[in-house]
Amino acid sequence: MVRVLRSTPTHALNAVSSVLLPSPCRLCGEPLAELSAAPVCSTCWNQLHPQSGALCPRCGENLGAESNDTASLCRICRLAEPPFARAVAYGLYQDHLRSLIQLLKYSRVEPVAVPLGELLATCVLAIPDLPSSLLVVPVPLHRSRRRTRGFNQSELLANALARALRRVQPQIRLQLAPGALSRSRATESQAGLTPRQRRDNLRGAFLVSGKQAQSQIKGRHILLVDDIYTTGATARACSKALIRAGAATVHAATVARAQRYEALLPQPLAAATENFTAPAIAAELPMHEDVAFWRSNTTLNQ
Ligand SMILES: [Zn+2]
Ligand SMILES: [Zn+2]
């Protein structure tokens, strides 16, 4: 054995050590102290923060500038009541949480889904009056997108979430139903679309198709799982399809959510911004698909 190692060329030893030694943290570059399936150091994980402040009790939007009253709904929910009972998100889509989701989704570091699912479990368990029996349904990708990416990140998160919930709260009856909801057409990428175009783009895109899926959904309390909640267009479209198929309730859980720009402004400035942008309602700003902030100077016509 010793003789073999002595005669082993350096590049071969490097190859061996890269397998045996932990790689650097994919977020900060520091060497990982231990081998880990998700290549992110504990310092980076510890920098994640759950959403805080007064949140809309229906969609989880930060009410910041709008109200300190946690009983009042945000402007979007007042304009158009969401079809879901409640949407929750672990944290804001920024900093390390954003990088982690991108690592999962675009760099295909699938093991990152496990700790993200555990974070998601903490905010699901904080839902008041959480039904004791839940059917966990990931937001589907169209099969062409799934083929390109090789996996559905929402499905990985749903699996990890269900495992974490079973461990922490075994009395909740959970069933995974990854095929219950399907995407009827390959929607255009949401990139560059305005909030209204995003809703139109998704109209009729989700459905519960087939007798098996319909009987799975009927009368059940659904836990809908996705990676990011941006304008809520996806959560609304999926919830509508599930309710139409006979679901009793839908709760939506996402790892992160984008922040509505106006909610971050102090009250007088927010009001001024709303007045200033009111004439431009028809000319909503196009949005990149991957946004941390968005403007809601629009009415909802769901
Ligand atoms: Zn790190
Ligand atoms: Zn709301």
Task: For the structure shown, list the relevant keywords.
binds zinc ion; 5-stranded parallel beta sheet; alpha/beta; single chain; disordered C terminus; two-stranded antiparallel ribbon; disordered N terminus; 9 strands; about 300 residues; Rossmann fold; about 35% helix
Tertiary shape: globular
Small molecules in complex: zinc ion
Q: Under the CATH scheme, which architecture of one domain would be assigned? A: 3-Layer(aba) Sandwich
DSSP summary, beta strand count? 9
Overall SS class: alpha/beta
Can you give a write-up of this model?
This protein starts with a helix and ends in an 8-residue tail after the last strand. It is α/β, with parallel strands linked by helices and 302 residues long. The protein has helices at 2-6, 10-20, 42-46, 75-79, 95-105, 113-125, 143-149, 153-168, 195-202, 211-217, 233-244, 267-277; strands spanning 86-92, 133-138, 173-176, 182-183, 206-207, 221-229, 249-257, 259-260, 293-294. The radius of gyration is 21 Å and the shape is globular. It has a domain at 83-261 and 269-274: 3-Layer(aba) Sandwich (Rossmann fold). It is built from twelve helices and nine strands. Strand 6 (221-229), helix 11 (233-244) and strand 7 (249-257) form a beta-alpha-beta unit. Helix 6 (113-125) packs across helix 8. A five-stranded parallel beta sheet has the order 1-7-6-2-3, sandwiched between helices. The protein has a two-stranded antiparallel sheet with strand order 4-5.
